[in-house]
Each structure stands twice: as C-alpha cells, then as structure tokens.
Amino acid sequence: MKKWLLAGLALLPASPAAAAAGVESICADRPGKATPTCTVPSGILQVETGVADWIRDRSGGIRSASLTVGDTAVKIGVTDRFHIELDFTPFTRADERAGGNRRRASGLGDAGVALKYRMTADDAPVQFAVRPFVKLPVAKRSIGNGKVEGGAEFSLDSTFAGSSAGWNLDSEVDVVSDADGSGYHFAMAQAASAGLPLSDRFTVSAELWTSSDFDPDRTVRQYSIDAAAAYLVSSDLQLDAGVDLGLNRDTPDLEIYSGIAIRF
After folding, report:
1. Which of 34, 122, 138, 175 sits at 20 to 30 Å (Cα–Cα) from 212?
2. What average pLDDT score do residues 3-10 get?
C-alpha cells in the first residue's frame, strides 16, 4: 500500500496485523472504533464485513440484546489517497425486556455513504485523514429512526518513536435526530488507541472510547474500554475479533464481534 504503511503504520490498531515480508498489505478500518488514516489504493475494490456483532446491556430494569450479521463496507479507491464507501447491514435483531413486557424486531439495517481522504503525503511522520458520511434510513421504524443523519470523522495516526507500535486519535462530529423526532442536534465521539504487533501477521490493540449525545431531552454520555486483534492471512485478507466493555450505565455492558476484510 503506502510506503508509510510498509514502514510500520500498517500495524496501527484498526489496520491489518502486518505486511507479509516484502508484500504490501491490506489496511482496513476494522477492528476497533477508531478509524485509521489509510485509504484504498486507486482502482482497488475492498470489502470489510462484520461476520457477527453481539451487544448485551442491563440497566434500569431493562435487559436488551442485539445481533448484527453481515454489516458491510464496500470501498473503491479513486486515487491512492481517496476512496468512496457504501455501507449496508443485511440483518439486525434487537430484543428488549422490561418487567413482563418484551419487544423484538429484526430485519434490514440502515445504509450509508462515506468518502475518505488522506490529506498528508506518504512520507509524513504523522498522517491525517477526514471521512464525511451520511446515513440513509432504509431500515423499518422498529429498527431505525427513519431519519437522514450524518457527520465527519477526523483521524491522526503514527508510530511511537523508536517502536513498531502505533497510535491513533479519532474525533467524530455528528448531526443526529432528536429522540422525539422533532428536529436535529449535535453528537460527538472520541477514541484513543494503541496497537502492538506480536508478529509479522498478528497485532493486538487497546482503545478508550467516549461519546456525547446532546439530545434536548437529555444528554447521554457513553464510555468504553476496548480490545481487539487482527490476523493477516495474506496480503489481501485480514481476520479480526474484538470485545468492548461499557464503563457507565448509559453504555452497553458488553459487545463482542468478529470480521473479515478482503481486497480484490
């Protein structure tokens, strides 16, 4: 991929485990919540899929669980620093219990369109990228909120001095629908992560994440500590898995996921 990736930035938390010796490796946005600055090379098709993502939460007398299968991003490189992305979720299921009441819903999830542009040169010591996106409300109302929403992510990453380990800082600003559907408000999220290569193919990472949703009815703040691992099967194929632990009442208690990224 890029020379800076080959120098070690491919080992960042959300990027692939490593490049096989002398071979440029795929760089994916997964695993983890932080987004790396790398983009899909010009003329290349890349598909990143969450095989399964399970979330469990117990709070305020309510028990909830959700399962998402096949959450997919399809990316096409326009230039070596710019790609276009289409996101879709073929199946999601939500189950909520409160007292003797139970609510279940399943079906197609929302879709989205995103652009990602790396603004720094290949040999820059610190990389910077921006990723604007729009959510398309294709899910039924029992699953989604039926509203167009959007935002932008801003990412910085590099390696620690004298080390092959990498760091990533990610900040996101969103415009989302009010809970009562009457208007829109701002939300934001931040993530700080670090990744350590344990071999040429295997990388582990840790991450701190927070978000704030400034709904007029109530501001909701979430915090989590996350861990993930990525394994490079070949220069074009990565497998990953991760676990996220909620740190306050408004954050889901546990999230476990796995996924795959492949480049054609």
Report:
1. 138
2. 36
